[in-house]
Write a structure and sequence with these properties.
Length: 188
């Protein structure tokens, strides 16, 4: 059992039979009324985002979660197949549970959040930034860097990322997996 004073960013709680991750939270105090605690919640086992308000000191129900390192093996008709790096056990996860499936490449490392009550995977998180090879890109014009003009580039997983004009085919780039944005060019 926990109360609203134990809320922290990233905590996973059970609310109305579903699991939610706390994205943001805060407290509202007024002179006359009791303090209220609010939180923005993102569904872990569903695709909903909700806002919730509690009276200060009210009981919440956190879920204990373990983060385990897995390696992406392959995708087939049953889903995405991952292997535990310690026990070598394999598991299949559906695409909806992966935060950025378009950036998964064979052998890539991911973190799987596992609900300790049910031993079932809840979500698969890629690292914040990953390095990918540009497999196709239109050639940029020399000296055309005065403005932040972007062009489409295809990376080794088949996804398309908007990159600056100076990025060419065959180069390595760093991508933010949370936003899908180009971060920087990587020197080998």
């Amino acid at each position: 059992m926990a109360t609203t004073s134990d809320i922290s960013r990233g905590m996973i709680i059970k609310l109305d039979g579903s699991l939610y991750k706390i994205v943001e939270f805060g407290e509202n105090k007024t002179a006359r009324a009791a303090a209220k605690v609010w939180a923005k919640l993102k569904g872990v086992d569903n695709n909903r985002s909700v806002e919730q308000t509690w009276n200060s000191g009210e009981t919440i129900y956190p879920v204990r979660v373990e983060r385990k390192e897995f390696q992406f093996l392959y995708k087939d008709d049953t889903g995405y197949n991952f292997m535990n790096n310690e026990t070598f056990e394999q598991m299949v996860v559906q695409e909806a549970m992966i935060d950025a499936p378009q950036f998964l490449k064979d052998g890539g490392e991911v973190s799987v959040l596992i609900n300790t009550e049910t031993d079932l995977p809840m979500t698969v998180e890629l690292p914040d930034k990953i390095v990918m090879l540009v497999t196709y890109s239109e050639p940029g014009m020399k000296g055309d860097t005065a403005t932040r003009t972007l062009k489409a580039a295809t990376i080794e997983t088949g996804a398309t990322v908007m990159v600056p004009l100076f990025v060419n085919e065959g180069e390595l780039i760093r991508i933010n997996t949370k936003t899908g944005d180009y971060v920087e060019r990587v020197k080998e």
